[in-house]
Amino acid sequence: MRRLACRLLDSGPILILAVIAGAGSFTHIRDTATEYGQSGWMAWAVAVCIDLTCVMAARERQRDKKTGRARSGPVSWPTLVLTAGIVLSLAANLNQADPSAWGWICAATPAGAFLIAVSMLERRASAPRPEPAPVPVPNSAPEIVTGPAEVPALVSAEPASELVDYARRVADDYHATHGQPITHDTLRARLGVSHQLATDLLNALHTA
User: Which residues cross the membrane (predicted)?
Assistant: First the structure.
């Protein structure tokens, strides 16, 4: 609940700004479409298409950054689509403005605020997540015991319950982010433990 409240306080103002600014920009685009022959539901469809195109292009740019997809030219296709949406949105807003400097500024404000809010959300979504810090590994050195023939044998200790719980949180976070179970090497790198301890932790997670 505390994490959800922090996210709402952090992203809530930007979402509210995006909704309000998007509604203002939507109204200007719809009125412009109506003036130029797109009456009824078609005027609403034009406004929805332009605003949602900007949102879709911004999300696609963020997805390209995450996946490292190479651009086919100087500018990526989502960037071109986003630029075209911005131009159409601003043109429709300015068309509804009073023919004066302040009229143009006031009419362009909803479109500008909407695009700023979308860019802020894109920037936050593309920020790298901090890697969990390695936790101190409990002493799990093998103990030497003497068997019937007095031959030393190695007995590995069970992983500490605190370390198992932390490994489970790391594995759950990896599964939620990547959509697949965490691998042995990834778990070992995230926790900074040995190969054997990473294997024991995976076995403990599977058993649980």
Answer: 12-29, 41-58, 79-95, 101-121
